[in-house]
């Protein structure tokens, strides 16, 4: 198993207004998923946030659920949780790469996502990483989402447009006054 190297952890994100996070989990390995969820919930609550939880069949469905929630609900951020353990086929590579890539693409569109989908060689590695009293990767994913929410709020808060593209009424032309007259 991997050693426990010392590394820097950012201070917990703080908020002036409430933050609401959606935890999306693929509970294929239920005991591991439960530990990831426990860590994520604890971190969100410690930052004063609230959370909702949905389950999806597998890691490949996690990004789709987050995309749906972003379009149809009102969450500030998302925590993606699950576990993929290497098997005998290349399915492992497909699930790991495609779920991670889809989450990254959603993030590049402006969604605040913490990726806690474990990709491991064996069950003992997953157990250590999921354990809230050990590596607590669920808590780490929640912390990542919360830090991104804090950045989004710092740099202008929620936008009505898709990702970083503003709605038409958000455009401000140089030399234009609030009443749409020009200088």
UniProtKB/TrEMBL annotation:
Pathway participation: Cofactor biosynthesis; riboflavin biosynthesis; riboflavin from 2-hydroxy-3-oxobutyl phosphate and 5-amino-6-(D-ribitylamino)uracil: step 1/2
Record's keyword annotation contains DNA repair: no
Xref: Pfam families: DMRL_synthase (PF00885)
GO MF term list: 6,7-dimethyl-8-ribityllumazine synthase activity
Catalytic activity, as annotated: (2S)-2-hydroxy-3-oxobutyl phosphate + 5-amino-6-(D-ribitylamino)uracil = 6,7-dimethyl-8-(1-D-ribityl)lumazine + phosphate + 2 H2O + H(+)
Domain of life: Bacteria
Biological process per Gene Ontology, one example term: riboflavin biosynthetic process
Database matches in InterPro entries: LS, LS/RS, LS/RS_sf
EC number(s) reported in the record: 2.5.1.78
Catalytic residues (UniProt): 91
Family as reported in the entry's similarity comment: Belongs to the DMRL synthase family.
Protein's name according to its UniProt entry: 6,7-dimethyl-8-ribityllumazine synthase
Organism: Thalassovita mangrovi
Record gene name: ribH
């Amino acid at each position: 198993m991997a050693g426990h190297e010392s590394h820097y952890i950012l201070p917990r994100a703080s908020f002036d207004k409430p933050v609401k996070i959606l935890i999306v989990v693929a509970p294929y390995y239920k005991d591991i998923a439960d530990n990831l969820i426990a860590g994520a919930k604890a971190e969100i609550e410690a930052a004063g946030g609230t959370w909702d939880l949905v389950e999806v069949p597998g890691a490949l469905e996690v990004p789709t659920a987050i995309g749906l929630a972003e379009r149809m609900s009102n969450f500030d951020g998302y925590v993606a949780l699950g576990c993929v353990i290497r098997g005998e086929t290349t399915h492992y590579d497909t699930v790991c790469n495609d779920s991670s890539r889809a989450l990254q693409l959603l993030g590049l569109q402006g969604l605040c996502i913490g990726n806690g989908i474990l990709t491991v060689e064996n069950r003992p590695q997953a157990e250590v990483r999921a354990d809230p009293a050990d590596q607590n990767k669920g808590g780490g994913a929640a912390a990542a989402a919360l830090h991104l929410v804090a950045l989004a709020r710092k740099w202008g808060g929620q936008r009505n447009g898709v990702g970083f593209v503003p709605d038409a009424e958000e455009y401000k032309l140089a030399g234009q006054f609030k009443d749409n007259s020009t200088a």
